[in-house]
Amino acid sequence: MAINWYRYASPATFYPVAGRLAPAFGALAAIFAAAGLWIGFALAPTDATQGEAYRIIFVHVPTAWMAMFVYLVMAFWSALALAFNARLSAMMAQALAPTGALMAALALWTGAFWGRPTWGTYWAWDARMTSTLILLFLYLGVIALRGAIDDPRRADRACAVLALVGAVNVPIIYFSVQWWNTLHQGATVSLTAAPKMASLMLAGMLVMSFAAWFWCIAAALWRVRAIILERERGSAWVAALPETNLRAA
Amino acid sequence: MGEFLSMGGYGWYVWMSYGACAVAIAAEFVALRARRRRALDDAQASGVDAEPLRAGAAR
Predict the structure, then answer these.
(1) What is the pLDDT of residues A195-237, one digit of tens each?
(2) Mean pLDDT to the nearest integer, A91-106
């Protein structure tokens, strides 16, 4: 089966595709979030040492994972945008930055409210926390850099370079708990070892992670549609869209 | 219900975490709809009387 991927590199072709995909991923996010919250609050047992405070894990881990993963995806689209001078790739990178920033902010926020009851502090200049804060600043830097450059194509290239350079921070976050003696605990879940937590806790965390994943996809697709409209306005295909045509009539 | 909300004494921490996530996602959803509305308004304003040459050019 050969799919002509170049066809989908055109904003005009991708716009309706994203319009069909975004609500589907949004619905999936809602379903998985409902299921994950049910598992997390109704089924998962109370933790022996942390009591009910551990239930913050069901939002903390998914947002922290997505904060890192969205950055890597943003860097990937940035690399394509630079290598092939592809407009849609740059738009995808642009669409991911605010959602990634939100995930990083939520990871830090929920981490603070988990750290207080378990470690006795909302914040410490721990390697993992500090590198995650830098991740948030990188997202904000990419967003601010775009806002500072009027020409969208120049902004695409500048943001792509910043996103790629900043990608070095993601492995630093990931391995920070191994490289440094951190207040933050090491990985609880890994692909190579048996999970160090009850299966219902793990299930809740994974289902909530899928919910976060689907939400990020839906939000990025909705945002890229708005970005396409913003940047392609004045073109014949945008003027011919039913949603712009009807409103003009 | 009160027992559920108290979260074994950790209610403040648990609900501040979940509340922030709920507010953030809801705010992003609302912002995305507003951005689309704005983009459509702008496209309508500039799209109708666009020059044919510019409109037809592959950019």
Answers:
(1) 677 889 999 999 999 999 999 999 999 999 999 999 998 888 9
(2) 98
Tell me the CA end-to-end span of chain A in Å, nearest whole number.
42
Indicate the length of chain B as a whole number: 59
Q: Report domain extents, chain A.
A: 21-248
Searching chain A, which residue's CA lies closest to the CA of residue B56?
A236
Closest CA to A64 of A135, A167, A120: A135
- Among B35, B36, B44, the strongest candidate for a mutation testing the A interface, having the largest count of A CBs within 10 A, is B44
pLDDT tens digits for range B19-54: 999 999 999 999 999 999 999 998 888 755 445 444
Helix, strand or coil, per DSSP, at residue A51? strand
Q: Which residues of A touch B35 (CB under 8 A)?
A: 223, 226
* Total-model pTM: 0.90
Q: Where are the alpha helices (DSSP H) in chain A?
A: 11-38, 57-84, 87-119, 127-148, 152-166, 169-179, 199-232, 236-239, 242-248
Q: What is the rounded distance in angstroms from the CA atom of residue B29 to the CA atom of residue B55?
A: 31
- Tens digit of pLDDT for each residue in A137-173? 999 999 999 999 999 999 999 999 999 999 999 999 9
Q: How far is A2 from chain B (nearest CA, A)?
A: 25
Query: Measured between alpha carbons, how far is A154 from A10 in angstroms, rounded to an integer?
Result: 19
